């Protein structure tokens, strides 16, 4: 009785082969703090608890995958007894009640498929992954535990011969060679559903039973008197039913049901397309008008003869007046170079990750791979961060002196802030004994990856930046800075307001991303996310260039930081939208610890977005200003 696995498929053969479900951490949309499944008084497997190997992404997400006592025999419908607990002590009863009231969910998997349940809400069938620890009926002071599970396993049958089992791997997975798909024989699990019940049972009636002994099947009781209450000294009996159903769903399509779980999918797609078209149309108009204005200025100037140009130089107005100051070194120039370098690193990581996910390399079956891939990409893109930050440092200063300091700070700026915030949140999770807390070993592993990969590569990139050709400014900078005329309104007001246009391109997608992070929903429309990402890059570039041109036209030569924050200010709106989501969409989130976790993670997300979008805006504005003043010959 073995499983054969080939080309990412697993075929179970013959009938009666045992397959065991696994359990992940208990999760809640109220607290956002995961806890181990066996932190509650559930039945333990006969051979003891064994943790599954987890990748870096799973550990960072707080996953803790363990084996479970739930056994399924292929195509065998049965009702089985698991165990009866000892009388609940005060701590166990209190903990069960707390987890029930905090809406904690049990996350179970069979053959890597999360268990799915269905509920009726306002006449609409809603799909969920996992099932609740228990429930607290309205109007009742008691809490009831889910202790009986009615499973339905969907299997797809393959018929044929020519199956040659050469050996067995982990958990009985067979290794087969030269297997023709048409010759494969057996069953593949393509669906896993559950109906959770609370059934009151007399512990004495099951005292002589052993695990996996057969029992009579029961229906889920509707009356509270027949449900299992959570109370001190209560003994809880755990049982389950299994029913196998043949299905026409094929293996490659078995995740479709999970990826289509988002309610209102048509509204989701229509809203994104509508947003994309409107923003693209507005940005296109602004950009075309802007190009015509600058082109007219340049054309008129170039058509004049030398004498007329000399006369015009004396009567210069607008952006031409700041020719001797436009490339003057900005304040906090080292910090600007560092933030641009980190922005390149984050932007490169985001684009490559989304492209790979769009092409199908980030399967939802591979839990944690998306986050693992992002971390690996970020580490190796340190070379690009060091190169860009040092090259701009050379451009601004005119010398390579101090490049090591710039490289070190680039390697430590964003990761340092991230580690500081995560350490604070980790202490909070440690204090709550949550599986979301990073193990101390993983914490040091991340630090080692940072210092052994990212930091050296950033220094290598910085060294390459010193050897790269220096970007020469097209005009000389005056020794005495030009006085900037007074303005009727603060220039930073316009900078902050400029972030609304980039935010308009992503706020709809942001809602679905936040829902996938905080409500446990699957997010897999990476094709649309890639379109939104590309449109965001275009809009950030356009907004920053337009704002830079407006500043130069009013003789304000301090455009460097304003160009960065014109597009980077979208992060402010992302953070405010996250708070809005917390208040109006995560109303169930309870307690200061949960709110602290949410705000902390939202801050990190917004800060990363600021660095990435700010870098897009600055690089585009720099290229524009360089081109603009290189096109006009003013002595």
Describe this entry's structure for a reader.
It is a single chain. Helix content is 47%, strand content 15%. The chain has helices at residues 56-60, 90-101, 256-259, 265-303, 306-314, 333-358, 369-380, 382-397, 403-431, 440-467, 491-498, 500-518, 526-553, 560-568, 570-584, 592-630; strands at 2-6, 9-13, 18-23, 66-73, 78-84, 105-106, 108-110, 113-114, 116-121, 124-129, 131-132, 134-135, 144-145, 148-158, 165-168, 173-176, 186-197, 237-246. The strands form six sheets. A four-stranded mixed sheet has the order 2-1-16-15, with no helix packed on it. 35% of the residues are buried. Residues 161-183 have low confidence and may be disordered. Its main location: membrane. It holds the Pfam family EMP70. One of its GO terms (biological process) is protein localization to membrane.
């Amino acid at each position: 009785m073995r499983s054969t696995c080939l080309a990412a498929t697993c075929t179970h053969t013959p009938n009666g082969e045992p397959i065991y479900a696994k359990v992940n951490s208990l999760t809640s949309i109220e607290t956002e703090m995961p806890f181990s499944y066996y932190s509650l008084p559930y039945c333990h497997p006969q051979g003891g608890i064994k943790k599954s190997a987890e990748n870096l992404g799973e550990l960072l997400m707080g996953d803790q995958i363990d084996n479970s006592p739930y056994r399924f025999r292929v195509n065998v419908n049965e009702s089985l007894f698991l165990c009866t607990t000892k009388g609940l002590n005060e701590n166990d009863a209190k903990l069960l009640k707390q987890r029930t009231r905090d809406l904690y969910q049990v996350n179970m998997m069979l053959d890597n498929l999360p268990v799915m349940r269905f509920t009726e809400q306002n006449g609409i069938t809603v799909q969920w992954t996992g099932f609740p620890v228990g429930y607290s009926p309205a109007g009742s002071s008691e809490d009831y535990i889910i202790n009986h599970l009615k499973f339905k396993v969907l299997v797809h049958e393959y018929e044929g011969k020519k199956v040659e089992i050469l050996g067995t791997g982990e958990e009985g997975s067979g290794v087969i060679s030269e297997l023709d798909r048409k010759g494969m024989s057996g069953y593949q699990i393509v669906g896993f559903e559950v109906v959770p019940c609370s059934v009151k049972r007399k512990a004495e009636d099951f005292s002589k039973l052993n695990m996996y002994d057969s029992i009579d099947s029961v229906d889920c009781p509707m009356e509270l008197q027949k449900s299992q209450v959570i109370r001190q000294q209560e003994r809880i009996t755990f049982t389950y039913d299994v029913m196998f159903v043949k299905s026409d769903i094929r293996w490659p399509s078995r995740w479709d049901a999970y990826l289509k779980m988002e309610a209102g999918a048509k509204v989701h797609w229509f809203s994104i397309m509508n947003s994309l078209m409107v923003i693209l149309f507005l940005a296109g108009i602004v950009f075309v008008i802007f190009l015509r204005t600058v082109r007219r200025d340049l054309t008129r100037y170039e058509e004049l003869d030398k004498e007329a140009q000399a006369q015009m130089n004396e009567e210069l107005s607008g952006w031409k007046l700041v020719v001797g100051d436009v490339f003057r070194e900005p304040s906090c120039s080292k910090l600007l170079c560092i933030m641009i370098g980190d922005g390149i690193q984050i932007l490169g990581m985001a684009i490559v990750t989304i492209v790979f996910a769009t092409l199908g390399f980030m399967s939802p079956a591979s839990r944690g791979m998306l986050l693992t891939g992002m971390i690996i990409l970020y580490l190796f893109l340190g070379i690009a961060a060091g190169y860009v930050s040092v090259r701009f440092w050379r451009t601004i200063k005119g010398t390579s002196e101090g490049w090591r300091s710039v490289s070190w700070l680039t390697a430590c700026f964003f990761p340092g802030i991230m580690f500081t915030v995560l350490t604070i949140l980790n202490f909070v999770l440690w204090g709550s004994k949550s599986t979301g807390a990073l193990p101390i070993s993983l914490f040091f592993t991340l630090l080692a990856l940072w210092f052994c990969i990212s930091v050296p590569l950033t220094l290598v990139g910085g060294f390459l930046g010193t050897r790269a050709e220096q970007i020469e400014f097209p005009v000389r900078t005056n020794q005495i800075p030009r006085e900037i005329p007074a303005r009727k309104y603060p220039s930073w007001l316009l900078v902050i307001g400029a972030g609304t246009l980039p935010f308009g391109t992503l706020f709809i997608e942001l809602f679905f991303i936040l829902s996938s992070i905080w409500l446990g929903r699957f997010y897999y429309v990476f094709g649309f996310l890639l379109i939104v990402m590309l449109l965001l890059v275009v809009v950030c570039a356009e907004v920053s260039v337009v704002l830079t041109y407006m500043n130069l036209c009013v003789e304000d030569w301090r455009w460097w930081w304003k160009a960065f924050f014109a597009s980077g200010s979208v992060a402010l709106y992302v953070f405010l939208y996250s708070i809005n989501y917390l208040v109006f969409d995560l109303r169930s989130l309870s307690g200061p610890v949960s709110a602290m976790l949410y705000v902390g993670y939202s801050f990190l997300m917004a800060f990363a977005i600021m660095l990435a979008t700010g870098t897009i805006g600055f690089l585009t504005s720099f290229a524009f200003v360089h081109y603009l003043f290189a096109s006009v010959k003013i002595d």
